[in-house]
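User
Here is a favour to ask of a fellow structure person. I am asking you to supply a protein in sequence and structure-token form. Please set it down just below, with no commentary around it:

Assistant
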Amino acid sequence: MSRAVRILVCAALLSTAGPAGASAEDEGISAHLRALEQGSRGADVRIRLELNWRGQPAQYIPLAPTIEVADGATLRPGVSRSSFDGEHTRWSHDAVVKLPDTAGPWTVGPAKVTIKTRGQPDREVAAAAIRTGRPDKRRRLAGLAVGNGIVLSLALGFGLIRYRRLRTEELAGGDALRALLRRAEEAGSQLEMGGTAEALLEALLALRLALDGQGVENGELWTAAAIRERIERVKFGGEEIPTDECLQMLQQYAAAGNG
């Protein structure tokens, strides 16, 4: 059960441009909430509420938004600002959530903002809730232990791949690709022990870029752009990329590198 914590935002009327009495066409206001950093239990995490609309800043006046946080969390307001690029306005409000001293991840939001428009009824815009923080390591390990055996099978396959690579290490010499694969394997081992996917994703990105220059078959692999997008989701979106998905892709990269 979440409780709403109201934060106050100072909204100032900016001067309007154009002829008096001209009506503004409402083409919609988009709103979204995002975490600016990864959260951890009992720590502060910065969040940002953003509104975007077509037109000048004075076209709409955002009032005090309501942002829900998890039980045991607190929220304090930060800085509000708006910018206009000549066509669109971006209004944003930063706030800080102090996360509870409980196992994550935690939910922040949804957020609701009442918008005032000259000569029109007030309207409410909502931003969907987000999740931030990583699951408790002990809980993640317990979940892996009681799973359906997928992760265990992947771990066994990963071990076989690593054993084969160790047997061929002497012949590989100073191969840079082998070093990148070893780095990815180490990151995969840490992931199996309850670590995060970020280190493995970064290693897979380096592997993808290296394989692009090796002329090997890589059509089934994640593209570099897809890996970068996943890294951004982990860093700034508070998302957890499934462990088995990452380990499966590691096996495919290892097979491509050996091809």
Q: What stands out?
A: Helices lie at 137-145, 150-167, 169-172, 176-192, 198-212, 224-236, 243-258. The longest strand covers residues 106-117. Strands lie at 3-6, 29-35, 44-54, 61-62, 66-69, 74-84, 88-98, 106-117, 120-127, 130-132.
